[in-house]
Amino acid sequence: MIHEELQKLEKLARQASLKLAEMSAENSQLKEKLAQIEADLDRKEQLVEDFKNKIKISNIVDNRTVNPEDSAEMSELINNYIQQIDQLITYLSE
């Protein structure tokens, strides 16, 4: 009788040990996935901030009075700056 109870307890202990190992592996996988998701979120938040800055720059340029002669030159200069910023963002995102 005691022998049977010990065998049952040993079986339960093995099952609990296996379940613990499974749950530990799943926990590790979930932690890795969470870290990846957080990194993606940080990257996307940075992109949103960059786009907000672009919009602010565009609004500043739109509200500023510029001589018609200087308008084309300034527009080209700003477009070049934006392209360079885009290239830097792309480079830093890789």
Walk me through the structure.
- With 94 residues, the chain is mainly alpha-helical.
- The protein is 94% helix and 0% strand.
- The protein contains 2 helices and no strands.
- Helix 1 (2-63) packs antiparallel against helix 2 (68-93).
- The mean pLDDT is 85.
Brief overview:
This protein has 2 helices and no strands.
Question: Which SSEs are present, and which pair or pack?
Answer:
Layout: H1 2-63, H2 68-93
Keywords for this entry:
single chain, 94 residues, mainly alpha, 2 helices, 0% strand, rod-shaped
Q: Any idea what the shape is?
A: rod-shaped
Average pLDDT, all residues: 85
- H/E series: HH
Structural class: mainly alpha
Number of helices: 2
What proportion of the residues is helical, as a percent range?
Answer: over 70%
Low-confidence segments:
none
* Gyration radius from CA atoms, angstroms: 30 Å
Span of the ends, CA to CA: 66 Å
Beta fraction: under 5%
Largest beta-sheet characterization: none
